[in-house]
Amino acid sequence: MARIFIYDGREFPDPNPTWTPEQVRQNMASFFGELSNAETDETKRGEDTVYTFTARLGKKGEFDPHKIADQMCRCGHKKSEHIGLDGHGPCSVRSCACGKFIWSYFLDKDGNKYEPRRS
Asked: Is the pLDDT of residue 41 over 80?
């Protein structure tokens, strides 16, 4: 009985039988960045256990503006928490020393982080 890992229609051998499926997913995320917050589904195929990884936000670099709920500043607060014209001013969160909004990543409607590829 083997463990088989599937991502993007491809099968991958078990890199380390002592790792949990989540540890395997995190290890694979070093090659496929979109797996860092992917979902893991477990099924049986005969005596084998098949783990399928599904990226939540699509492939890295793809942009779907309909999924974006807010932008995040490098201070860790939402753009909507920044004051000024279009939220680009200082952070309104008490004790935050952020002087202005500096984009870091997007947040989707489910609270997942999305960072498009930068050129």
From this structure: yes
- Phi and psi based region of residue 24 (left: phi greater than 0; alpha: psi -120 to 50; beta: remaining): alpha
pTM greater than 0.70: no
How far is 35 from 29, CA to CA, in rounded Å?
Answer: 5
Of 81, 114, 111, 115, nearest to 98 by C-alpha is 81
CA distance 81 to 93: 7
Q: How does pLDDT run across 106-116, given as a tens digit for each residue? A: 877 777 777 65
Angle at 109 between CA 21 and CA 29, to 5 degrees: 30
Tell me the CA distances in angstroms from 1 to 7, 14, 50, 118, one per residue in order. 20, 12, 10, 42
Rounded CA separation 119/112 (Å) = 22
CA angle 6, 115, 31 (to 5 degrees): 35
Rg of the chain in Å (alpha carbons): 19
Sign of CA dihedral 80, 83, 87, 88: negative
